[in-house]
Amino acid sequence: MTEKMKGSNNQYQSIPISKIFKIQLHFINFLTYLLVLVFGLTLGIIISFYLKECTFSLQFTQLSLSSLPRTQHLSPPIAVKQERVGLKDFLKPPPIMHDMDDEELLWRASMTAKIAEYPFERVPKVAFMFLTRGAVFLAPLWEQFFKGHEVYYSIYVHSNPSYNGSHPESPVFHGRRIPSKEVEWGNVNMIEAERRLLSNALLDISNQRFVLISESCIPLFNFSTIYSYLINSTQNYVMSYDDPSSVGRGRYNIQMLPEVSLNEWRKGSQWFEIDRELALGVVSDRIYFPVFQEYCKGSCYADEHYLPTLVSIKFGEGNSNRSLTWVDWSRGGPHPAHFLRSDVNVKFLERLRSKKCKYNNGESTNACFLFARKFLPSTLSKLLKIAPKVMQFEHYDRPNKHKLLSFKQNI
Ligand SMILES: *[C@@H]1O[C@H](CO)[C@@H](O)[C@H](O)[C@H]1NC(C)=O
Ligand SMILES: *[C@@H]1O[C@H](CO)[C@@H](O)[C@H](O)[C@H]1NC(C)=O
Ligand SMILES: *[C@@H]1O[C@H](CO)[C@@H](O)[C@H](O)[C@H]1NC(C)=O
Ligand SMILES: *[C@@H]1O[C@H](CO)[C@@H](O)[C@H](O)[C@H]1NC(C)=O
User: Fold this and answer.
1) pLDDT tens-digit series, residues 309-340
2) 316 CA to middle of ligand 3, Å?
3) TM spans, by residue (predicted)?
4) Distance (Å, rounded) from C-alpha 108 to C-alpha 99?
């Protein structure tokens, strides 16, 4: 380097002035470039520092102020502080009309937390699961029943796919129909429908009690009485008994061995009321259900035997072995009595409400039945007139003839 400098010094003498001037000019240019470079670098560093501070302060101001348009516009895309999500997304049930098939649905519904305590405030709900052929024709009565209790219940409807629901669905039932399949009464596909209902209801973590209801069912008490009864109960309500006759043990098939023996075979009404634990047990049963699918067909009437047998074998201890749904078998025959408009009166309803049973395994007595069936569509207007008073519904509208008429015309 020094040698080179020396060399150029030596050359100095022979170089004309114009050339010297040119070299100086180059040198000045070089200096200018250097200066611009240094200046640019400094400016860049300063700006980057400034921006950093800006985003830093932005994060802070965003906590207190909702908007700061000028600085926000300056800052690069940064993670804007959002409302806490926590478990909110995880706990949100999928849409009622999801596209899961039965296998996917049952699998998802069978999941449960290993930690029993909930890390959030959970208001337990009662899931009312309507298994119907078509319209819930007593919907206006149920609407009066549900009124004002929105956070304490959820509704699910399974109806035959052929029913296209063309009538204006009543508000509480609107959009509550789950993906449904064909059901023939007495067929094992009725159990599939019940498991489908249970699975859909299990997807909502708030549901604690699960009630199966038909379109001809009515409630016998007001919502708060039924809610307290169910939520405070330590038992399940699945009717289950050993019937030695031809319509009991007579329906047993020896091929069900070894999973189900004749001694374990039970009968009972299909209209159940169970807690979350048992609901999980039912949807995740992969031992007994396939046996019923295979060997309980036709006049076996799986709906009268599957749940009573399963519960008796695996969940007998917590079961009351009785149903909460009253039905009149007194007239004999293979089907219970239907009730017409002329059967419905205050005395009749009071009689159903006044039956007493042991509650929570004998600790106290309480109502035997919370629901009753089988009420035909013709009973609706009469029920609307007398039931809200007899059953002491908390909030109800006076029956509106006009509304009722249009509803009836549509079903
Ligand atoms: C429902 O089905 C009936 C007959 O099956 C048909 O006449 C009617 O148009 C359908 N309504 C809707 C909304 O699809
Ligand atoms: C359960 O019973 C207790 C005491 O009997 C009562 O205080 C409580 O409110 C009841 N819970 C519900 C949900 O009704
Ligand atoms: C119901 O029946 C089961 C057996 O199936 C039995 O373990 C249970 O104690 C019975 N419950 C009552 C309340 O009798
Ligand atoms: C609900 O019904 C019960 C009787 O089952 C009654 O004691 C209670 O007062 C009713 N609630 C209201 C708000 O009317």
Assistant:
1) 999 999 999 999 999 999 988 877 778 888 99
2) 5
3) 27-51
4) 13
Residue 409, sorted as left (phi over 0), alpha (psi -120 to 50) or beta, turns out to be: alpha
β partners of residue 214: 131
What residue ranges do the domains of the chain occupy?
A: 28-82, 100-410
Q: Of the residues 224, 228, 363, which should be mutated to test ligand 2's pocket, given the most ligand atoms within 8 Å of the CB? A: 228
Q: Which atom of ligand 3 is nearest to the CA of 266?
A: 5
Backbone CA torsion sign across 66, 68, 69, 74: negative
Residue 363 near ligand 3, beta carbon < 6 Å = no
Burial class of residue 374 in the structure, from the number of CB atoms within 10 Å of its CB (0-12 exposed, 13-18 middle, 19+ buried): middle
Write out the two tokens for 212: 């199966």
Rounded to two decimals, the pTM is 0.78
pLDDT band per the 50, 70, 90 thresholds, residue 267: very high
- Exposure string over 191-224, b if 16+ CB within 10 A, otherwise e: bbbbbbbbbbbbbbbbbbbbbbbbbbbbbbbbbe
SS3 content of the chain, % helix, strand, coil (to 5): 45, 10, 40
